[in-house]
Amino acid sequence: MYKHQISCSICPLVLCLATASLSPVEAGTPLTRGTLLFVVRPQYRPDHHNTETMFQTGEINTGSFVGGGALKTIDLATGAVKTLLAVPEGIVRDPEVHFSGKTIVFSMRRNLRDDYHLYEMKADGSALKQLTFAPGVSDIDPLYLPDDTILFSSTREPKYCMCNRHIMANLFRMEADGSNVHQIGKNTLFEGHASLLPDGRILYDRWEYVDRNFGDAQGLWVCNPDGTNHGVCYGNNTPSPGAVIDARPIPGSQRILCIFGSCHDRPWGALAMLDLRRGFDGRSPVLRTWPPQAMDLVRNPGTVNDAWDTYLGVTPKYEDPYPLNDQYFLCSRMTGKGEQMGIYLVDTSGNETLLHVEDPGCYDPMLLAPRERPPIIPSRRDYHTAVGYFYVHDVYLGTHVRGVHRGSVRWLRVIESPEKRFWTYPAWMGQGTIAPAMNWHDFNNKRILGTVPVEPDGSAYFGVPADKFVYFQLLDQNGMMVQSMRSGTMVQSGERTGCVGCHEYRQTTPRNTRTPRALKRSPSKLTPWYGDPRLFSYMAEVQPVFDKHCVSCHDYGKDAGAKLNLSADRNPAFNTSYSELWRKGFVKVVGAGPAEIQPAYSWGSHASRLIQVLRAGHQGVRLDGESSDRLVTWLDLNAPYYPTYA
Description:
single chain, 646 residues, mainly beta, four-stranded antiparallel β-sheet, 6 helices, 32 strands, 28% strand
């Protein structure tokens, strides 16, 4: 790998600046004209996670905010640097240039007492205008959409990461003047660093998990600008890298440039090029990395555990990639002077040219010029039905349905994984930092929304409340879980969306045979689970079964209680029966990991000793149908305990 570093602030052999006025031939040749926009700021202080860069007022880490930033330009022909906006006590971040090249939208925080709001100004630094004003929230990562509305990430729906205490953000959208703010992502953790694909869809990075580990659940996702059709793009089951962030499409290709980083680090790491036609996880889609040895840290699903921080040791580190064409990329990169970052031109021939550097560091380099506007995707949502519709072509099509015989799946259960709205300083260290203690070995609470039938041909078609972060489980004729999703999805009001199967091969489409039976009828309505949907509580839903059928023998002071105590007595975190079932191996659930998709029947009620003992007729105990279903369902929900983080 060749590296060219120069003592002056601008390299005379500059880049392929792909402006709208250039022909395709010119776009691939070195040029010495054009203007770059960039940010000057300190590197974000290290914190819990690579998403934790906001240090919002009132948050646990507010004191980590360090100001002293500016938004600047550099003329590549002369090397002249111009300050568009200086904030001596604050930070300017996340600029994005309009398709016309005439305006810039960005996020700014003026000082420690302020929070991040969105602003817009002309490309010459004039006509500064504040667009958002919400107090006590962070608005970051703005992006112009093809219809001139603005997408951004925001903490406006308050939620904290389930494995710690830090504020999270979702995707929002608003009009160009800041009006009509509305949420388009409902993931329970973080959605950010969005960019536009050539077809008008949104590419963004997403940190989320349901019944899985915190560290290897951050990958790339896509959705439509109206918030419909959220889908995984890369890395959702890849153990390492632990973070796949800051992705942008490479012009003139079907490739993506992004950062491979670590879970517990700043938003930097290795620069990586992906070709998603080659796969959606692991090493096969990764064409190359900068530095080259970072390729060796990519792990395929199922090969390693606890690898989410392997990119901590990568040197040098890269940040804020900005592809110019399929050969030349801008980025921030370590200069070799501590953590200082400079603007570099990287090319596919192995050259890395320092273009500009100044203290404390340079970030977010991009071309200040017109660019092509992607097509507008018509909206598929409405704002009045409050229900969306899912369609599954065939639940028996998938990567992890071995041993599931056709006809054995009778029901599909819809479960909501709610957001975390509260946190505590004391923590339960079952897996990661669960603050407060929620479950023995998992972060999530649950709400059963209901079940719907699965047709004999494996199809299902059903309505789900809109704007809920939900996942699905397949149930057999006894209501026992066969397979479960461990990522979430959502549907917008009025949206209709679907999938080929359960954990289906994402590079395939269903065979065009006869119309699935589920589509020959109206969508199914959710059948409630013993009453209205509610947050699942072990003490309310499960312990009464033990009180009725088991505690007469399995109690303190009794022989059976010495083997397994199923009494309701409370301990400091959980109660006696819950702790006993976990400690003595009567529960086999997936807990908070691993990231990989699990085989059918491998955890939950089918695999747990508690159900096996009861189904074998333990001491003549005969549970009624509802009592049995309550125990089965609790295990299939990953054995939760508390209904709320409060």
